[in-house]
Amino acid sequence: MNKFISISLVISILIMPMNLLWAADPVNGCLDCVAPKSTENTFKLLCKNVDDIVCKNVPDSQRRSCNEEDKDLFSFKNMNRNQIYQFTAGCFKSSITSFTEFFTDLMKGIWSATKSVSELTVNSFSKNDEVGIWGKLKGAYESSSSVAADIFEAAKSDPGAYLEQIMNKIAAIIHPMIDNFACLNPQLKVEKSCAFITDFLMPPVFLASALVLGFKGLKVIKSARLLKEIEATSNVTKLSLKHYQQHFNQLKVLGYSESDIDKIYKAGKLETLDLNALKPLSTRDGLAQRLSLIDLKSDPAIQIKKPIVKENAFVPLNLTKDDITFVGLNPKGEAYLLEAKILERILEDGKEIAYRVQYIDPKTKEVTVKKLTNSMMANAKVRVNPKPSNVGIIKDSDDPYSEFLRLDKEASQLANLKKIQEENEQSSLFQEFMDLKNPKTVKPNVQYENSVNFTNEDGIEKYKIIKTKSIQKEQVPLDTKSIGSRGLISEQFSSNYLTISAKDAMGNTGRMKAEITKTFKDRGEEFVIINIMDTTSQSMKPHTFSISELKRMGPKESPESEKLINQFKKANGIQSIDLNH
Amino acid sequence: MRYWPILLILFSTQLLSADFEKVVISGYEKEVLSSNHLRFFKKDKSSDVIHLQLDTYDSSKPWKENSLKKDINEMFSKRKTMYSIAGITQPTLLNFELVNVDKMINPALKLSGSYVLINKKKIWFEEINLYYKKHFLQIKVIDQNGLVSSKLISSIISEIKPTTLEVDNE
């Protein structure tokens, strides 16, 4: 019965805008259409109307009976959009009258479908209640009838405005359904219809769903949206929504992405998958299992999309305890900025010789695991000292960022960067680009020795992409406690660098050259962000200061600044702080 | 609760049964939208129209006073969704109440409210849902000029005599 309801629902959804189209363009109306008796069920009602248009050239002996409720009503496979339009436009003469009835059925169907999704996927909801959470809802049919009456009057009073408005809303779901559902087997068609319905309902119904279904219910509805991603393939093993949901949840726990699950499903492996044998993706075995499940080699589409990155072209830009940022170059010389998580440090004779890292491929969005060796980095003229005390220190002479900047100077580089910006949402560095109001207007206008400054056309926002280049050998990483206060910065903020020195709690003198990475305006006030070593996490961390504040403080300490600094020193247990150009 | 004396009188009078489609309301033209949906309008195209609909419901879960507010809130949330799908905005529930009706299996639910159409016209509605064993009869008055008077609903009920309606499978 559910199946029938769902199929009817799909048909109802398909037909509803058809009525609207007819009304919008009565010229295309089908004069021979006979409005069926309204006492018949929706399937027959629609079938009889559709039949004479879609199936008119089909011999009677081959024509499907409208009594065959479980069979597909029609196929859009061989119809172009115009034909579909003609079909829909001519479908129902009794448009506005029938529409009310259809709307009522549609609303009931949507409610039933939502109920169906909930019952299938949320076992915990209805253990003691056969009807499930849906049974707790009252007034479903009363509401369907009531709103249908309102819709009828709305459409009748101003059909043009009404139809235009509602068409926009319906088109969002109707076209994907027309395009994608034609080749689906009935099982998938039902599943997809549920997904589309829930998807369709999501924006306006989100709060209502929260009221009705509660938090768990919302999660179910949201995850059901994933089904829309399932492509129609003839060899996909049938899998019920319930099973899909169960598999989905377990795979997510193991660390599989939605994209992974989709690929496994499309490969027909989901139903036969032994979930108990799978290891988490945080383990080596788990990663190997994932590769075999996704079977990249068998998917030419994935192979094409996967960027080919030369292994010896990794250029580390930043290395911390947990992460490494590097530039990968493909054979075309296009640069990919990647931020990878260090999964494992590979040791040999007590020395770190390589890193196994994981990053999100900017092209495929796949989580990729790669082994980066010191030799690869050496080939890229980079020296990385893996000792924690020196993490993040890169000598000027080996500055890998200059390599990046060299590429960056080329005009084509900007396009690549923008491409990366779109594709690599995970990259913190490129997140800076994301902050721009209109990335298309970004043009490099100033180049510093080691930086690129981007300014919007309106000149308001400035972005400098700079990596900390130099930390003198004698420097001791400064505890950030001694930095995060006011008045500690020299007036040299106007250039690229700020020099800061202080004594830490151990009495060691530290002096470091911090670099401005970004300036921005907020409500008329200009701010600067500098990168300073955080000795706790052994990573470079940005700190934000107000420029007006810095100017006010100046290099020569005013009484006010002295007061502030003394307060700061006292608060942080710092023995002395002085400013240095 | 102000309806109950009228309704008590109306429903306590057992009259001859009549088909739903044969229902008439004096002063209004009838349009049969379907076998279970009638629309009544005035010849002079006055602003008010009446919709009568008959449909099934889950009689095991009647409206109850102690949970009415919560249930109505949930139901109206769903209606808001329906309205939003249909491009109707600002649905507002102005009043709701249960009305005990003699010889009806469950109390009747009365609602009144308003919404705004795409063309910015504000519409008011008043509806009452009368419950049989398996079916409910919905009487809904829609008006552009303001909330319809309770007298109109009462007079409609007195005229159509809901208890006399012959409903299939009851």
Task: Give a verbal description of the structure.
The complex is a heterodimer of chains A (581) and B (170). Chain A is α+β, with helices and mostly antiparallel strands and 581 residues long. The longest helix of chain A has 39 residues, at 186-224. Chain A has 17 helices and 13 strands. The N terminus and C terminus of chain A are likely disordered. Chain A is elongated and about 95 Å long. Chain A has four domains: 2-109 and 130-184, no CATH class; 233-304, no CATH class; 311-455, no CATH class; 471-579, no CATH class. Helix content of chain B is 22%, strand content 35%. In chain B, a hairpin with a 5-residue loop joins strand 5 (106-116) and strand 6. Chain B has one domain (4-11, 48-162): Mog1/PsbP, alpha/beta/alpha sandwich (Protein Transport Mog1p, Chain A, 3-Layer(aba) Sandwich), CATH 3.40.1000.10. Chain B has a seven-stranded antiparallel beta sheet, with helices on both faces. Residues 1-18 of chain B have low confidence and may be disordered. Chain B has three helices and seven strands, in the order H-E-E-E-H-E-E-E-E-H. In chain B, 42% of the residues are buried. The chains are: A alpha+beta (581), B alpha+beta (170). Chains A and B meet through helix 4, helix 5, helix 6 and helix 7 of A and strand 3, helix 2, strand 5, strand 6 and strand 7 of B.
Please give a quick description of this structure:
Chain A is α+β, with helices and mostly antiparallel strands and 581 residues long.
Uncertain segments of chain B are 1-18
Structural class of chain A: alpha+beta
- Helix content range of the residues of chain B, please? 10-25%
Largest β sheet strand count, sense and barrel closure of chain A: 8 strands, antiparallel
What is the class of chain B in the CATH system?
Answer: Alpha Beta
Number of helices of chain A: 17
The total count of strands of chain B amounts to 7
